[in-house]
Write a structure and sequence with these properties.
By secondary structure, the chain is of the alpha+beta class. The protein has helices at residues 17-26, 57-66, 122-129, 202-229, 235-243, 247-266, and strands at residues 9-13, 36-45, 53-55, 71-74, 85-99, 105-116, 136-147, 164-165, 168-169, 172-185. The protein folds into two domains: 5-152 and 177-200, no CATH class; 209-266.
Length: 289
């Protein structure tokens, strides 16, 4: 993984002028420049990450408003003792000539952070200066994740992240940033250049992802069975209908269409005679000699 020094953490040192004004707005007393150490971080960007997700430009703009004042921690462990630095300024900036993996103009959220020059922080400052502490990740909340293929909420559409559809890879587009929890020094970030964990509640996120996967499998099964039971039905229409159904409705339709398809695939016997010795049915007339 190639990461330039400017891509994640860059030591600045002693702040001056406007930076000190912004820092002192967050401090409980007036700080002097020599008491403070500052550095810049690339918090997140609009490129596709390892989870096949990306922020849209509007979400980055919203995060730029939300991150000033947010604390930095380690490995997303929320603890007062683990708070080491705080963002005092953030803005969305472009990287001229650079494009995302899918060809869009590349932009990223840059943050400026400060920490106190204390004996406890001396080792961390040395690690930042030495390039040891460099990968970062953010914890935030977004309003929705939109499918890049159909434009519908990803949890309701039939597409899967990372899968290719007519030459286009499905990506979850993170929209409407609602909150910024923290930013963290990590070993392996999710984003290739900065590293992003969209939510600090990873366990809940994993459960939600499994639930979405289950619903998608139900929708695919419903569409498949409906296509067999109703050969003339429009496939795209079936997908749109399935996307709007909840679990209970999907299960009922899967049961209904499975029954119909089993009858169709099993077929009728060509000869059917009654057990009471009556004459053959008219449907069997073609087989009379």
């Amino acid at each position: 993984m190639e990461i330039s020094k400017d891509a994640v953490v860059k030591a600045i040192g002693q702040p001056e002028g406007e930076d000190m004004t912004l820092i002192n707005r967050l401090a409980r007393r007036e700080l002097a420049p020599e008491e403070v150490y500052t550095f810049a971080v690339r918090l997140c960007d609009n490129d596709i990450d390892r989870d096949f997700e990306r922020f849209d430009d509007g979400a980055l703009d919203a995060l730029a408003e939300l991150f000033p004042g947010v604390s930095g921690v380690f490995d997303h462990q929320w603890s007062a003792r683990g708070q080491t630095a705080r963002i005092y300024r953030a803005e969305v900036v472009s990287d001229p000539g650079v494009v995302t993996s899918d060809g869009r103009p590349y932009i990223f959220l840059k943050g400026w952070a400060y920490m106190m020059r204390t004996a406890e922080n001396a080792d961390l400052i040395a690690e930042i200066d030495g390039g040891i502490k460099r990968e970062v990740s953010v914890g935030c909340a977004v309003d929705s994740v939109i499918c890049s293929i159909c434009g519908e909420p990803l949890e309701n559409c039939p597409h899967e992240k990372g899968q290719e559809y007519d030459g286009q890879v499905c990506v979850g587009v993170l929209t409407g940033a609602a909150d910024a929890y923290e930013w963290s020094f990590v070993a392996v970030p999710a984003q290739r250049k900065a590293g992003v964990v969209k939510s600090a509640g990873r366990h809940l996120e994993d459960e939600a992802r499994l639930g979405r996967k289950y619903l998608k499998s139900l929708r695919r099964e419903m569409v498949r069975l409906a296509g067999i039971a109703e050969p003339g039905a429009d496939h795209a229409l079936l997908e749109r209908v399935a996307a709007r159904l909840d679990e209970e409705e999907l299960l009922e339709l899967v049961k209904l269409y499975r029954g119909k398809t089993e009858k169709l695939l099993t077929g009728r016997p060509q000869l059917s005679y009654a057990e009471d010795g009556t004459e053959p049915e008219m449907a069997d007339g073609a087989y009379l000699i």
